[in-house]
Task: structure prediction
Amino acid sequence: MKPYAALDPELILDAIESCCGLRCDGRLQALNSYENRVYQVWLDGGQSVVAKFYRPQRWTTDAIQEEQDFALELAAREVPVVAPLAFKGRTLHEHGGFQFALTPRRGGRTPELDDPETLQWMGRFIARIHAVGEVKPFAHRPTLDIESFAYEPVQFVLDSEFVPDDLYDTYASVAEDVVERIERRWEAAGPQRRIRLHGDCHAGNVLWTDDGPHFVDLDDARMGPAVQDLWMCLSGERKSQQAQLLHLLDGYCEFREFDPAELMLVEALRTLRIVHYAGWLARRWDDPAFPANFPFFNTQRYWQDHILALREQAAALDEPPLRWLH
Result:
């Protein structure tokens, strides 16, 4: 059975009304999300909330609750995250076999990460997230590691039938080579301090307003090195990334110290994301939303481009890390 086959508008509205005591006016709008199902739901009176229905069997109940508790902990420290709303003393609800949560509806635009002031602002707020994140560890959520972000997705792809026959051996060889380079970078960085992270802190998960950012979607929150929440703010050629990093860390270090040894991990983490993304698409291919929204995945061109991206990352992993003069 497909993971969301039973999730229809009637179930969504009934879940919100029966579990949360709200009255819906019948309007729903699906929002951009693939891992979970997320909807803007209008209530009687014209207000709206956002309903997030978690993908069945992806997380344990304890892990989901821990994500929500982290968001509430951040909000209590006045860190601008979009935290779940509580109804009847609970933030996590279950109805019709689905677990879900409601959050306020927040507007905003994508942050301009080529702007120095925006980067400094982002750095300050990421540091505030980390200052809360280092207070205690997660007990039920995973740690960012090479096993789950590289070895497992590569093996899943190799065991599937997605890679064209004429590219199979090339993909296997290039993936093996790049993972070995990741491991060398990991070792060179030395012992890492792992803290609770946002986990997926890219521009699409930040809503920017005139008052600054709102961070959304802690679904990938996990333990890991602080730089995981920083490197996704960097883009472009090396010279541009170097300049962006300095602005980002200028803001970050106003609220928290940064370990420069973690810069050794930037390209390793970027490569892990590329490797993991291919495995994620392969694992989710039986969900009808994925072939509909990622039609390029199951093509010869995708795997040619993916292999090229891995080769480019192999070269990047041989370059010296970005520098920070503090």
User: Anything to note?
Assistant: The chain has two domains: 9-104, 116-317.
